[in-house]
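Hey, I was hoping to borrow your eyes for a little while. No rush at all, and the record is pasted right below:
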Amino acid sequence: MVETIAYLGPEGTYSEEAASIWAAGRPVTLRALGSLVKVARAVDEGSVDWGLLPAENSCEGSLALTLDLLIDRADHLQICGEVVLRIRHHLLARPGITQGRVTRIISHFQALAQCRGYLERNHPDIELVEAESTAEAARTVAISPEPWAAIGTVKAARLHDLTILAEDIADLRENATRFIVIGRRGCYAGPADKTTILVGVDNRPGALYCLLGEFARHGVNLTRIESRPAKTRLGEYVFFIDFEGHPDRPEVAAALAGARQRSSFCKLLGSYPAVGASTPAPDTAGPNLAQIRAEIDILDGWIVDLLAQRASLVRRIGKLKDGKLIRDPARERQVVNRLRVLAAKKGVDPEVVAGVYRLLLPYYVELQASPDSQNSL
């Protein structure tokens, strides 16, 4: 059965080129749609099997609209693949129009941004106008009697009988865009060696640090982290995290389990084949002594950070008490007994934990008497 992949049209866009690369060798036809929102909706509603969305550019960074579409449809769609496309922008115009005659340059806002330096050097006084796509910009230039130019692809020039006034005008020579392929939940597009999750964390010191530490502790390499507003209230964010590996691998499963415990929510957006990556061979030997010691070093750092956070809270209590040294034996016994129970659940000797806290509690009590002191664990 022939499947369909939707992309941002019309014909002649970079999205079409990326979709063609992904579809090569597959029984897939291409369908151009008028916006990224329509692409995502078509996949969600089932009128197409796949959708292609631009995710990030090496010059201009991530595309906010794509991230927002993934947030809004995280329960229905998943990432099934990716394509990295080398982007070559060209200045296009109708035959007979020279650069000196151009009065307006039209393109997609990303293309204009990626050629900002060239435009400032060569056309500093020319009006720049945004279009829905580079292909739409080329079409507009082709049908207009005005001496306008577009930034677009070689195929767009060929489709609309335009000439190329200047080649490869992007400011970054290695300009590339990463596209993601989305499908409905349960899609499968080949062996997976990359995973993307969407997470939220509580608004407290160290929350994101502790979540990311789970991946370091289990030896999982993060390849990208990106924040977007949570759309709840100002200052609250969600995070996209890309990392190497599939949840079927033990170390990835362990890191994900730890991340879920340290997040307010954690959604798996997809595991998929990564461009330019190869799935690592399973580690049959297991972790060596150096790796285990490295994990211990990370954990020791967390322990000290958490003790310092506790000291900061104790200072706040001291200020509420006006610096008076007030011990609460009942409260101290309650803390130690609660930690005994927690230690037992985690398989740690309760008396060892209780002994540690019997050493720490007098120090914290003394901090209440001098809450402005900077000495802390």
About this structure: The domain at 294-369 is CATH 1.20.59.10 (Chorismate Mutase Domain, subunit A). The first helix runs from residue 14 to 23. The chain has four domains: 1-86+175-189, 90-166, 190-286, 294-369.
